[in-house]
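Case study B.
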Amino acid sequence: MTSTRSLWSQIALLAIIIAICVFPFYWMVTTSLKTQVVALEAPPVWLFEPTLNNYREALFEDGVLRTLMNSLIIAVCTTLLALILGVPAAFALARFEFRGKKDLWFWFITNRMVSPIVLALPFFLIARNLGLLDKHITLILIYLTFNLPIVIWIVTDQFRGIPYDLDEAARLEGASQFTIMRKICLPLAMPGVAVSAIFSFIFSWNELMFGLVLTRSEAKTAPAMAVSFMEGYNLPYGKIMATSTLIVIPVLIFALIASKQLVRGLTMGAVK
Amino acid sequence: MRGQVPRKTILSFIGPAVLGLAIVGIAPLLYAIWTSLHFYNLTQLRRVEFIGLQNYWDVLTDDAFWQAMSRTFFLLGTALPLQIALGLGIALVLHQPGLTILKTLARLSLVLPMATTYAVVGLLGQVMFNQKFGVVNQLMGGADINWIGDPQNAFMMIIFWDVWQWTPFVALVLLAGLTMVPGEIEEAARLETKSKWTVLRYVQLPFLLPGLVAVLILRTADTLKLFDMVFTLTRGGPGASTEFISLLIQRVGFRAFDQGLASAQAIILLIVTIVLAQIYIRVFYKEV
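Model:
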């Protein structure tokens, strides 16, 4: 008797948790399918005739498509660059002993915690002086400040989990450290590399402030675009939600793929 | 022998990353320090001049700065306990046996808020909390609450979204801790006592502590960084009621164009962050 009741209360609790997590997404998607007239109805309507007009207008008339492309190019390039620079460093941190290793580690951690506004001020002035405002390369480089530490973290952790005997055997056969990393450890560390790449992509794709401060039109990112709809009196809510939906969907897919490692990544390995 | 590698090899592995991070992470900071020692206004670029520590003095005696700082920590002090209480509740529900499919579904939906673009959370807030056509007022039985235009309500709205977005994170961290408790010990404890509270306090809490400390420190750092969501939702307003530290610095630097003063604020924020990061290291990353 009590157990059935507790079972039902458990089901109810779980349903509430799911509903609260998912409802804002439901509301975002349905609002994106409303015409401006329906979107501004008070109180809001739940049943209406859906239209894809907002998506068509946002993508092809207001240039959201281009900003999505910009975000994609920037997120992919910065992720690749972070992997190219970060994987060897992670290998060194996991396998070699050297002086200053602790300081290096500390520096990487600090980078994860620094508020982006601290860097946004000097970046803006430097980029302006060098004529680098509104260029993809500027954001690609700047996003390294948070992507590189993440890649190094997760991949170092992964390399540490690979038995050292494998290296040893290869070294006796005369393989260089680089060959050992590339041929032996990297294939085994692929899960960690993939997760760190997903994280790096998500963080870059989601970033707003640098995009806002350092781009105008050519390299404008999708979140900066969504925010720029928020000016004026008659806000195009349907269109804003359509753009938001387009921004959020790829991230949610990636997050669900990496859901098992999400906590580990967000705590930088403090919680496994 | 493990780890005995020529210095040249080490450098070739670690050098590119260090150089990369130095260029994007350290050079700008040095430039920010230089800027913070100057009068540097974007509207009066002819008048850039060295003024020593004047900017720092101005920041430290500026009420707006201290108010933004205390507002930031007040947000942390209200949102974090809520996140921990709700997160612990969710973790305990998910930790109970049975209902596997529903629990997997719940765990997957917990992932969604964490991954959502912060700027989109703010935009969603604008739509859902609108006084006239917002769904929140409708769900509250046709209430007529002005969420965005009222200082206190706006602050509550920020707390709501911070809790919505980060409670799942706390829940999953604590759930990871709960699964670390050895099954035999938990069962033995449940045979000894019927009180769930006793089990939580004496058996499960020790396993939750590392996660709780991680949550505390990461949420502190993230609250100091908080910008995107608030910027898209309230721009720090109405008045300065939701102007947290990162928003204040952005306003001073990019809307009042006083880069010198903003840089001084940023450097002070950086010092606060480094002190916190030191604590972080001391607590967690001893093993390296």
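Chain A has one domain: 58-266. The remaining cases will be described in the next quarterly update.
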